[in-house]
Structure formats: structure tokens, C-alpha cells
């Protein structure tokens, strides 16, 4: 079983136990060895977590790095939030590896670093949205790829031929840094949506302004 699959099954198993606050537990898996981090209010809950994870099929060993923090202590310290955010980024789908940095101050989480695609920047933000203790997310991840006018037009033309069986001659493209503005005419809303999606799909595009009009 893949480590990613095993990790997902462990989290699902923890979610099924009412007495366990799975949101405060970090789970990582390597070669079937599950490492658990985070904090719980009682030793009994820590033991319950260990027993729950051990019974998941495929778990070869469990490393318990969970702290017991009695209720009343500050459970959302910035260092804990940062640790959980880094873990979420590590396992997030489409998140660029080793290029996104996390900074947390008073519960405000700031993402910095570089991504090659706009969807990777968005994926990093989605990955940390459910991290407990986060009050606000500031996404300052930069896009490294340069935006090419030719690439944008080719992407739109390909999309329209596939989705709407026509060329993109009626569409004008303006690029300012990594911002793309589309103007001109299309025949249907489907063509308009296809052109907008195609522009977003080009590496390096950070925003798309839709100035297209629909004229059948």
C-alpha cells in the first residue's frame, strides 16, 4: 500500500472516533511507519489515538510525538500552527514541493515562495485552509513562469477548436506582466468559458480579466 493511501486511511479512522479531535493531530507515513504529532488534552486520548492507528491495516509501526496539553493551556501556539501547515502542504495535491514557505504570527498564516503555475499557488492555499488555529491566510506565493502571448493564444485556439469548433480570430489578448486581458467577440457562453479557462491554464498567468462579449 502506498504511504499516501495509508495516511488517508489513518486520518479517516481517527475521524470515526468521537473522543478524538483529529484536527489537532498531524499524520505522516514513511514505509508504513506512521508518525503522529500534535497535542491532546489527556493521556487517555493519546493512548486511544495510538490504539486506533495501530489497528489500521498496513501500519507497521507507530511513532508517538503527541504532547499532552491540559485544557486551559494555549492550544494554538504559532509554532503548532506552522507545524500543521507544513504537514498539510507536504501532503497537499498539486502543491509545489520545497518552494513554499510558511510564516505564522498571532494565528495569521503567510505563504511565500515560488510556484510555476497559478493552480499550484491556489493548491497551496487550499491545503492550509483547514489547519486548526489559522485565523487568516495571506498568499504571497510568486509565479516564476513568464507569460507568453503566443502560448496564451495557442491555448485559447486549441480550447475553442476542441470545445466550440471554431477559431479564436475574434479574441484580442493583452498581457501586462502576468495579467491577461481578453477582449473581442465570441458566439456563445461556452466559447467564452473555454477561452477564459484556456488563458488560466497557461503557465505563469496570475489573473485573467474577461472583457469578452457574446454575439451569436
From TrEMBL:
Q: Is Signal found in the keyword set?
A: yes
Matching PROSITE patterns: BON
Q: Which InterPro entries match?
A: BON_dom (IPR007055), Lipoprotein_DolP (IPR051686), Transpt-assoc_nodulatn_dom_bac (IPR014004)
Q: Which keywords are on file for this protein?
A: Signal
One Pfam family name is BON
Q: Which SMART domains match?
A: BON (SM00749)
On the tree of life, the source organism's domain of life is Bacteria
Q: What is this protein called?
A: Periplasmic protein
Amino acid at each position: 500500500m502506498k504511504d499516501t493511501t495509508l495516511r488517508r486511511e489513518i486520518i479517516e479512522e481517527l475521524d470515526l472516533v468521537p473522543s478524538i479531535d483529529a484536527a489537532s493531530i498531524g499524520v505522516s507515513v514513511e514505509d508504513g511507519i506512521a508518525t503522529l504529532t500534535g497535542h491532546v488534552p489527556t493521556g487517555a486520548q493519546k493512548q486511544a489515538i495510538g490504539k486506533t492507528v495501530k489497528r489500521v491495516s498496513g501500519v507497521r509501526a507507530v511513532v508517538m510525538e503527541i504532547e499532552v496539553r491540559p485544557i486551559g493551556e494555549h492550544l494554538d501556539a504559532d509554532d503548532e500552527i506552522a507545524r500543521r501547515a507544513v504537514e498539510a502542504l507536504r501532503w497537499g495535491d498539486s502543491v509545489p514541493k520545497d518552494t513554499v514557505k510558511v510564516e505564522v504570527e498571532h494565528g495569521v498564516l503567510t505563504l511565500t515562495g515560488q510556484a510555476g503555475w497559478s493552480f499550484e499557488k491556489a493548491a497551496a492555499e487550499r491545503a492550509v485552509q483547514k489547519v486548526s488555529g489559522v485565523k487568516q491566510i495571506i498568499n504571497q506565493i510568486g509565479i516564476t513562469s513568464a507569460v507568453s502571448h503566443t502560448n496564451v493564444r495557442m491555448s485559447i485556439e486549441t480550447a475553442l477548436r476542441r470545445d466550440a469548433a471554431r477559431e479564436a480570430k475574434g479574441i484580442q489578448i493583452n498581457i501586462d506582466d502576468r495579467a491577461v486581458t481578453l477582449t473581442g467577440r465570441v458566439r456563445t457562453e461556452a466559447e467564452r468559458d473555454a477561452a477564459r479557462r484556456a488563458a488560466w491554464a497557461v503557465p505563469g498567468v496570475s489573473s485573467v480579466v474577461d472583457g469578452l462579449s457574446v454575439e451569436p
